């Protein structure tokens, strides 16, 4: 049974470096949408990628989010604690082992009629004998198979605040990554499974995140359906771009809160974010929340020029 029963929004950063001003703006929007609609609001640390995540980075991110005036309901959920929940979910799903390397997938995907970016289905329909052979070949290379969803839908429709109804392909997404034999353990849980299981568990019915993830929403909503969860309402926020029109990145200069605070206060940063949302002269999150009207939000990418 879930302890989380009230409708909720969340912000779910991956702790692999400091958040930049675009991430902070998305977090601010997630908080505004949730609180303005009377929802709970959670922070979820998406640290399943064991190679890229660190506890130190997670702590810095939470500090920065608090510094711009966000507050959240406890507890903060750490995905590294949630393996049992992902294992339970996996057991409910129709899945298959996948023995492909990235290279196998690239090669198969370049064949005529392959759908770009979609898993070509190489391991989907293997016989038991073929599987035993592939498994032992892989084992000899020191690798363990990945686990994929056997999707029974080709596409799925989600609802998004900016886009309206959005229909996209449903892929046989990876649910668990391939592991290494020498570590005697399977690989990390995959983002698509973890995000769906945790949103379902936390009662998240409103997902605010960058619009670079819109394409993954149909597969996630399909997975939610398979697990008996109602898909959330999505709010995929246009990304922040740098002066050259490309997605904002570290190379664009002082973009993290700590970098910006060398010359400005947290209130100045909040003021900048508020301005990008169409509110001039507001430098604290609570006042912004009082004034916040989703209807007035600009629909274009915010060009950040320092
Ligand atoms: N952890 C993901 C990120 O930092 C966000 C995932 C999500 O919000 O669904 O990009």
Automatic annotation (TrEMBL):
Binding positions for Zn(2+) per the UniProt entry: 98, 100, 119, 123
Keywords in alphabetical order: Aminoacyl-tRNA synthetase, ATP-binding, Ligase, Metal-binding, Nucleotide-binding, Protein biosynthesis, Zinc
Domain Glutamyl/glutaminyl-tRNA synthetase class Ib catalytic, chain residue ranges per copy: 10-283
Cofactor(s), names only, from the UniProt record: Zn(2+)
EC number: 6.1.1.-
Pfam families the record matches: tRNA-synt_1c
GO molecular function terms listed in the Swiss-Prot or TrEMBL record: ATP binding; glutamate-tRNA ligase activity; zinc ion binding
Gene Ontology annotations of biological process type: glutamyl-tRNA aminoacylation; tRNA modification
Gene Ontology CC: one annotated term: cytosol
UniProt short sequence motif 'HIGH' region, positions renumbered to this chain: 13-23
Residues the record lists as binding L-glutamate: 10-14, 46, 191, 209
Superkingdom of source: Bacteria
Co-factor: note: Binds 1 zinc ion per subunit.
Motif ('KMSKS' region): 247-251
Function: Catalyzes the tRNA-independent activation of glutamate in presence of ATP and the subsequent transfer of glutamate onto a tRNA(Asp). Glutamate is transferred on the 2-amino-5-(4,5-dihydroxy-2-cyclopenten-1-yl) moiety of the queuosine in the wobble position of the QUC anticodon.
Family membership noted in the UniProt record: Belongs to the class-I aminoacyl-tRNA synthetase family. GluQ subfamily.
Protein name per Swiss-Prot or TrEMBL: Glutamyl-Q tRNA(Asp) synthetase
Organism: Corynebacterium wankanglinii
Protein's gene: gluQRS
């Amino acid at each position: 049974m879930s302890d989380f029963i009230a409708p909720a929004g969340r912000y779910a950063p991956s702790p692999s470096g400091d958040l930049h001003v675009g991430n902070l703006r998305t977090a601010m929007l997630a908080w505004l949408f949730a609180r303005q609609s009377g929802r709970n609001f959670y922070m979820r640390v998406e640290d399943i990628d064991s190679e890229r995540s660190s506890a130190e980075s997670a702590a810095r991110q939470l500090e920065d989010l608090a510094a711009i005036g966000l507050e959240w309901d406890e507890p903060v959920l750490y995905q590294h604690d949630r393996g049992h929940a992902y294992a339970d979910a996996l057991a409910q799903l129709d899945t298959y082992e996948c023995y492909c390397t990235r290279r196998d997938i690239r090669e198969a995907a370049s064949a005529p009629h392959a759908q770009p970016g979609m898993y070509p289905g190489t391991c989907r329909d293997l016989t038991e004998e073929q599987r035993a052979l592939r498994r032992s070949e892989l084992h000899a290379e020191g690798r363990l198979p990945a686990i994929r969803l056997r999707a029974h839908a080709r596409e799925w429709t989600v609802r998004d605040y900016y886009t309206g109804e959005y229909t996209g392909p449903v892929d046989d997404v990876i649910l668990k990554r391939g592991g290494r034999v020498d570590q005697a353990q399977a690989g990390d849980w995959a983002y698509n499974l973890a995000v769906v299981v945790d949103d379902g568990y936390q009662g998240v019915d409103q997902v605010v995140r960058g619009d670079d993830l819109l394409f993954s929403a149909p597969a996630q909503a399909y997975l939610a359906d398979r697990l008996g969860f109602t898909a959330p309402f999505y709010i995929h926020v246009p990304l922040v771009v740098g002066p050259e029109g490309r997605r904002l990145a570290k190379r664009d200069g002082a973009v993290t809160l700590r970098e910006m605070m060398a010359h400005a206060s947290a209130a100045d940063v909040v003021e900048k974010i508020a301005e990008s949302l169409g509110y001039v002269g507001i430098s604290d999150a609570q006042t912004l929340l009082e004034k916040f009207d989703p209807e007035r939000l600009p629909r274009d990418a915010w060009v950040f020029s320092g």
